[in-house]
Amino acid sequence: MSFALDPFQSRACVALEAGHGVLVCAPTGAGKTIVGEFAVHLALAAGTKCFYTTPIKALSNQKYADLVAVHGAASVGLLTGDVAINPGAPVVVMTTEVVRNMIYAGSSALAGLSYVVMDEVHFLADRFRGAVWEEVILHLDPAVRVVSLSATVSNAEEFGDWIKTVRGDTTVIVDEHRPVPLSQHVLVGNRMFDLYERSAHGVAKRSAREVNADLKRYIRHKMLTADDRFSDSRGRGRGRGHRGGAPRASRPDVVASLDRDGLLPAIMFIFSRKGCDGALAQCQRSRLSLLEPHEAARVDEIVDRHVTDIAPADAEVLGVEQWRAGLRRGFAAHHAGLLPTFRHAVEELFVNGLVKVVFATETLALGINMPARSVVLERLVKYNGEAHVDLTPGEFTQLTGRAGRRGIDTEGHAIVLWTPEVVPEQLAGLAGARTFPLRSSFAPEYNMAVNLLGRMGLSGAQELLHRSFAQFQADRSVVGQARKLDDARLRLRKTDAQLSQLAAERGVDQDGTESASGFLSYIDLREDIRRRERDLKFHRRVENTQSIVDDLGALKKGHVIGLQSRRHRGLAVVLEPAAHTSDPKPLVLVEDAWCGRIDARDFVNPPQVLGNMRLPRHPDRGTGRGRRDLASALRATGIEMPRGRGNKRAPAADDAELKRLRTALRAHPAHRLDPGDQLFRLAEQRNRLLREIVSAEREITSRTSTLGVTFGRIVDVLAELGYVRRTGDTVEVEDAGRLLSRIYSESDLLVTECIRAGVWEGLSHSDLAAVVSAMAYESRRDGTSDVDSVPGNPRLREALTETVQVWQRLNETERRHRVPATREPDTGFSVAVSLWSSGRSLTDSLAAAGLAGQLLSPGDFVRWNRQVIDLLEQIRIGVGPDAPLATAAARAVGSIRRGVVAAELG
C-alpha cells in the first residue's frame, strides 16, 4: 500500500488474525475495504474460501476487478445472479442474495468457507432487500468469521451487541475520523461561502455549529433584491419571479465556478435521471470544455474498448456518439437508466481523471469507488418512491462522504447550491448531525418461510426469528415503552383522585351507586356517541368505495363521465371498458387530451354517466394528434360537468342506536353542568390517559410478537394452499413448498401458484418471457399496466388474464389471513420483451414499451431483461429439466440473451 494503516484498520486486522469476527463502522471513503481485503488474504494463506458480498452488481463488478488485479483471475470468481465467472475459485465476489440462496439450497460451495465479508452491511435497513443481510448473518455456520463493514451509524454498539449475540466472538470497531477533512460550503449564485464561521486561525468552527455571518447577510440581501425585482416586474406586467428568492445559477455556470476555484473533479448529485440528463445536455450546449486534446484522445481509446461489443445498429439507437461527445469535453451522467457499459466507462474515466464532472443520482454514493475533490448537492429534497422528502443526516453524510481523495487532496469539499428553501441554520444542523441509527427491515416472507421450515422445522424457525436484529431492537425498545406505561398509570390514579373530590363538590358522584348517575358514566356516553359517529362514517365510506368499484366496472365504451381527481379534472370518455370488475380500470380520454386508465382512487363519489359519445371502431389514442382530435370531439358534445355536490342525508340522522345514546345523554344528571366546568377538563384528561395506556399496551404486545404473528399467518396461507402440512405442532414442507423454496422473487408465491395451475403451459418462448416479465417488472410511475394494455396475440392475453385471476384468488386468501398482499402483475414490459425475444430490433422493442405507456431508457431495458432472465432461470431449475416449461424457459433465456443484453451480461 502507498500509505500506512489507520489505527482502526490495524485493530480490525489484528482482531481478524486472532480469529475474531469484526464489525467496522467508519465514514465513507475511510478505507473500510482494507479490512475485507485482509480477510481475503487470510483465507488464501490458509487454503480456505472467502465470499466477498456487496449490495449491488456494480459494486460486485468493481470489487472483482480490484481483487483480480491483486490475486490473479485464477483465484477470484464472480457470481451476480446473471453472471458466473470462475465460481469455484477460493475467493468469490457476489451480491448478498446469492450467498443467501446458496445457504437455503445447501450448496456444496459453502464447504471450506472461512470468511464472509459483508460490504455496506448497513444496507440491512433497506425496506425492500434489507432482510437478506440478516438472513445471511443468522444462517452462516458458526465457524465462519463474518467481516461486517458499515458506514457510521449512531447505534453501532447496539448493532454490535446483536452480532455478538448471534455470531459469538466479534470485535466492534467504530471510527468517526475522516482521513481527508471535509469542508462544507454554500454556493449562492456564483459566490461560494463557507457554511461555518471560521476561527482566527482560519479553521471552520464546526464543533460550535456557528453559521457563517457573511453567508446569512448575503442571503438576506439576495432575497430582498430579488423581491424588489419581482415587485418591479409585476408592476410592469411581466416577469415570473422565483418564489421569493434569487434565481439559481445554471449548471454550466456552476461547473465553470468549480473549475475556476480548483474544485474539480466533482460529483453533482441531482435526484432524478431526467435532471442528470438535462444537466449533461445543458453543458453540451454551452462552450464548456474541461479536457485538453491529448486527454480527449485517451477518452476515445477507453470508450472504443467499452463499446466494442455493441452492434452498429444498436449504437445509433443508444446515442453512443452523442454520449462520447460529452465525455470528450469532460462531463457525463451516471444513473440506473444508463446502459451498464456506459456507467462502467464513466467510472473508469472518472477514476483516471478524464471526466471532471459527473451528474449522478444517489445510487453513485453506494460504495462505488469514485472519490472526487468536491461533491455538489443541487437540492436537499429527493423522491423516495412515494413522496418528496428531506434528506436525512445519514443520506447527507453518505453523499458528501465521496468528497476528498486520499493521498491526493488535503481536504474534500461538500457544496450545497442555495435556493430560497435552504435555511443555513438547518443545513448546518443536517451537516453536523450524528444521529442516524440503523433500523432493521427484517420481515418473514413466503420463500423465507418454506426454507426455514424445511431446514429447521417450526420451532427452529420461530427461534431464529426471535434471534433477528428486528426482534433484538423490539425487545430493547419495550423497556422504554414499559416505563411510559407505568408513568401513565400513575398519572391516571392521580387524575381519578382529583375527579372524585371535584365530583363530590359538584354534587355529582364519580362512580354513583346507579349506573346512570355517576359522572364517569356521562363521560362514557359522550365517548360512545363519538365512537358511533365514527363507525357510521367509516361504514358509509366502505359502501361508497364499493359503489365506485361497481359503477366503474359497469361503464361502457362511449360513456362520458366527470373526473374530479387530483391528477385529472374534467369530462372523460370511455375508450375501453374495464376487463375486471373486481378492480376495474377503464381506459379513458380526458378533455385535456390525457389518455390513460383510471381506478377507484380517482373518485370520491361513484362516477355518473353524463351522456354518450359516438366513437370510431378503433379510436386513435396512440398519437398526439389523434388524442387531441378525440378531446376536441368530446368538448363539442355539449355535455357539461355537474355543478355542486349532491346533498345526501347523513346515516347518523336515522341511526336508532345514536338516537338512544343522545337521549340518554340529555337525561343524565351531569348534563346540567356548565361545559366549561373543570370536571370536563379532568374527564378529557382521564380519557387521554386511558387511550395512552391502551396504545402503550398494544405497542408492547405488537413489538414483542409482530414477527411471530406475521410468520404464523404466512404459514397459515402456505398450509391452506398446500405448500406445507400441519401435523400437531409440526409442519412439513410438501413438494409444492420445495418448488417455492427455489423461487426468489418479490412475487414468489404467485409465480409458484401459476406454475402449479398450469396457466403458462404450452406458451411459446417469447410469450412465456412476456408473462414472466409481469412478475418481475414494476412501473416507475403510479399504477401498473394490466392485460388491456397488451395488444394482439390471443394466447398471450389469455395467459395474462389467467395469471391475473390466480393473483386475485391469492389476494383473497392473503386478505383473509391478514397477510400483506402480493402486488398486481404489471404488463408494462411484456410487449417489449416479447418482441425482443422474438428477434425484433432494439428500436422496435423500446418503441413498443413507449406505446404501452412505459418509456424505457436503454439501461432500464437491459436491467429488466436481466430480471426476466433471472426469474426464468429460477423457474427452469425449479420445475426440473424434464418439464416442458423448463424447455420453454431455457429457450426464452437464450432468445433474450442477445445483442446489447448479451453484451451487458458477458
Descriptive tags:
alpha/beta, eight-stranded mixed sheet, globular, single chain, 12% strand, 906 residues
The portion of residues forming beta strands comes to 5-15%
- Total number of strands: 24
Q: Separation of termini?
A: 31 Å
User: What's the story with the biggest beta sheet?
Assistant: 8 strands, mixed
Task: Catalogue the unreliable spans.
Answer: 230-245, 512-517
List the helices and strands and how they pair.
Elements: H1 7-17, E1 21-25, H2 33-46, E2 49-54, H3 57-71, E3 76-79, E4 84-85, E5 91-95, H4 96-105, E6 113-118, H5 131-139, E7 145-150, H6 156-167, E8 170-174, E9 182-188, E10 191-194, H7 213-235, H8 251-260, E11 266-269, H9 273-285, H10 293-306, H11 312-318, H12 320-327, E12 331-334, H13 340-351, E13 357-360, E14 374-377, E15 381-383, E16 388-390, H14 393-400, E17 412-417, H15 424-432, H16 446-466, H17 469-505, H18 519-554, E18 559-564, E19 569-576, E20 587-590, E21 595-597, E22 611-612, H19 624-636, H20 656-667, H21 678-720, E23 724-727, E24 730-733, H22 735-740, H23 748-757, H24 765-776, H25 794-816, H26 830-837, H27 842-851, H28 858-879, H29 884-896, H30 899-905
Parallel strand pairs: 1-7, 1-8, 2-5, 2-6, 3-5, 6-7, 9-17, 11-13, 11-14, 12-13, 14-17
Antiparallel strand pairs: 3-4, 9-10, 15-16, 18-19, 18-22, 19-20, 20-21, 23-24
